[in-house]
Amino acid sequence: MDGIHDMGGMHGFGKVEPEKDEPVFHAPWEGRCLALNRAMGAIGAWTIDEGRAGIEELPPEVYLASSYYGKWALRLENMVISRGLASADEVAAGHALHPAKPFARKLTAAEVPRTLTRGSFGRPPPRPARFKTGDRVRTKNIHPATHTRLPRYARGHVGTIEAIRGCHVFPDSTAVGAGENPQWLYTVVFDARELWGDAADPTLTVSIEAFEPYLEAAER
Amino acid sequence: MTHEHDDDHEHGSELSEMQLRIRALETVLAEKGYLDPAALDAMIEAYETKIGPHIGARVVAKAWIDPAFKAALVDDATKAVQSLGVISRVGDHLIAVENTPAFHNMIVCTLCSCYPWEVLGLPPVWYKSAPYRSRAVNDPRGVLADFGVTLPVDTQIRVWDSTAETRFIVLPMRPAGTKGWSEERLAALVTRDSMIGTGLAKEPQEIA
After folding, report:
1. What confidence tens digit (pLDDT) does each residue in A22-53 have?
2. CA distance B162 to B168
3. Is A116 on the interface with B (CB under 8 A)?
4. Three-state secondary-structure class, residue A115
5. ipTM score of the complex?
6. CB of A142 within 8 Å of any CB in chain B?
7. Spans of all domains in chain A
8. What is d(CA B70, CA B93) in angstroms, rounded to the nearest whole number?
9. What are residue B151's DSSP bridge partners?
């Protein structure tokens, strides 16, 4: 979706402000919030891309005004309720009031080491890759109202396939519950002037990780 | 949002409000039987004490002194980092990109906050912030200036937007004056920011 989360190239957000000796968490609730979100992902309550879509669907004014873990907290509330894992009256009361939705298992401390490793998103390819390293490609001009990983700034531009990363779970598909629909993934590199015009830094190239459905062949 | 909000709260009460909301969610989800609070404790402890940029620093230092490891790292970072036996298995799709005098790499996630957790820990707030995510892809030199870093005008810059499940770690340049240093001593020069590409490795005199 063309939401506020898609920030690449926007102006007006000011300087980057690194914090000296930044703590891992700024308050204990941030750690609990992170762990709760990870735990629900680990038991399969939602996929990583459904979770990302849950953040992107926050109203833009809420997205901009909330801290990072504040957004995670809102996403968690919204998703446990929308998926029937808990109800709004329970979240408000702070206690379970109704039977749980049956899940095969619950996340225990013994399983935590497994959750600290990222899952694998590579899948057996259903067909050969359409492009090869060095091919010129144009990103499609698409504007789906649902989750996509093709950023706005990189749509409709010509770049070069720099690497083939294998065949991966397709976020645009899993985010809407339509299955993994694996697609070839490429690193596509663009000259900054192609993306930002003649005034761009001539020493700059920008790459995205692009799924095959985002791409079409371009003429050399 | 599902809670009634009191707009009249005092400064600082966002904290206690968030604490209450998260406690309510945790209680409900634990009572429902989806998770054990001890699992949350274990996860938080891992991110606070075990997983952090010291892992990436060890990887970089090893690459600086061991050309075969460096070649393996650039070829397949997941496999190379796993061979070190770090704290937890590294997930698939880790990619190491090497800085040279002519070529500087910088990592961003413009769409959310993708970051190589297993080798760098959780991302800092600035990495997830609108200023960094918006500017990295069209003004990396301006971003570097915010970090007090200036690169030569003819250095090529590559910004890697982490738009899929591939994850990137920058292999910074080894500082001069470190010939013969041990891996452990070299690792002390490797900052988190140098592995994101918003900084350079420390000079020897900075840790003297």
Report:
1. 999 999 999 999 999 999 998 889 999 999 99
2. 8
3. yes
4. helix
5. 0.96
6. no
7. 28-115, 136-217
8. 17
9. none
Q: Which residues of B are catalytic?
A: 109, 112-114
Per-residue pLDDT tens over the stretch B56-79: 999 999 999 999 999 999 999 999
Subunit contact A112:B154, Cβ cutoff 8 A: no
The pTM assigned to this predicted structure is 0.94
Instruction: For A14, name the nearest residue in chain B, comparing CA atoms only.
Output: B131
In this structure, the answer to whether residues B45 and B58 fall within a common structural domain is no
Instruction: Please provide the DSSP assignment of B94-145 as one string.
Output: EEEEE-BTTEEEEEE-SSS----HHHH-SPPGGGGSHHHHHHTTT-HHHHHH
**Averaged pLDDT, A76-87:** 95
Q: What is the mean pLDDT of chain A?
A: 94
Residue B7 pLDDT = 43
The listed CATH number (1.10.540.10, 2.40.30.30, 3.30.450.20, 2.30.30.50) that belongs to domain A136-217: 2.30.30.50
Chain B partners within 8 Å of A116 (Cβ):
43, 46, 51, 87-88, 118
How many other C-beta atoms are found inside a 10 Å radius of the C-beta of residue A107? Answer: 27
Cβ <8 Å between B126 and A18: yes
